[in-house]
């Protein structure tokens, strides 16, 4: 199994676990097993903890702690109940924090009200919610396409122009934005190359 396929499989299992009431533990356990394999490959290739944390955050929408719990559950270091209790405790702790907006992996957005409680935005304001939600019977291509379109739209929205004239622009800030531009540029060039090749083949 290639690294990309393994990542895709884990992401799919996590989505199914989030959306299933009856089989969530089974999906999470399988995701943990595959994540453990991915972590072993990451370590063998000389990857760092910082890179691992970035990987699970970007690809799976979870933190390093959650990823570690899933792997510990899969390897028998933690029971399913212990993992569930820890997750509930973190959720309660997170909700106590003063957060105005909190994205969930399912695509739902929670907004903090005046009473301090988090509530979902109206469906009309969550155009992405149904677009990225996994549906039974979806092919891998449909899931990958939906995910890329969502990430692209989210990236475009996050990069909207802001007036930085009153603030300091340092090398780190510029380098981070430049790195993002270069990464999306490479992806656009790669997709364009595939499209042209297929058009030429069909001609």
Topology (elements, then pairings):
Elements: H1 3-19, H2 24-44, H3 49-60, H4 64-74, H5 80-96, E1 101-103, E2 109-112, E3 118-120, H6 129-132, H7 140-158, H8 171-202
Antiparallel strand pairs: 1-2, 2-3
Helix pairs in contact: 1-2, 2-4
Tell me the number of strands. 3
* Gap from first CA to last CA: 33 Å
Strand content: under 5%
Tell me, briefly, the overall form: globular
Radius of gyration: 19 Å
* SSE string, helices as H and strands as E: HHHHHEEEHHH
Question: Helix count?
Answer: 8
The tally of structural domains comes to 2
**Portion of residues within helices:** 55-70%
Main β sheet profile: 3 strands, antiparallel
Give the averaged pLDDT, no decimals.
76
Strand-pairing-aware structural class: mainly alpha
- Strand order of the biggest β-sheet: 1-2-3
Task: Pick out the low-confidence regions.
Answer: 97-107, 123-132
């Amino acid at each position: 199994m290639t690294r990309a396929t393994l990542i895709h499989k884990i992401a799919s299992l996590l989505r199914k676990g989030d959306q299933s009431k009856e089989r969530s533990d089974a999906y999470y356990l399988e995701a943990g097993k595959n994540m453990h394999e991915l972590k072993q490959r990451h370590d063998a290739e000389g990857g760092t903890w910082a890179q691992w944390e970035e990987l699970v955050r970007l690809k799976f929408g979870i933190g390093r702690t959650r990823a570690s719990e899933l792997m510990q559950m899969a390897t028998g270091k933690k029971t399913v109940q212990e993992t569930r209790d820890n997750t509930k405790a973190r959720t309660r702790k997170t909700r106590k924090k003063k957060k105005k907006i909190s994205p969930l992996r399912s695509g739902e957005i929670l907004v903090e009200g005046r009473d301090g409680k988090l509530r979902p935005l109206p469906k009309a304001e969550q155009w992405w919610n149904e677009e990225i939600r996994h549906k039974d019977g979806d092919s891998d291509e449909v899931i990958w396409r939906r995910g890329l379109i969502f990430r692209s739209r989210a990236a475009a929205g996050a990069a909207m122009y802001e007036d930085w004239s009153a603030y300091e622009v340092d090398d780190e800030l510029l380098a981070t934005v430049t790195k993002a531009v270069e990464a999306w540029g490479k992806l656009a060039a790669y997709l364009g190359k595939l499209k042209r090749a297929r058009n030429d083949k069909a001609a």
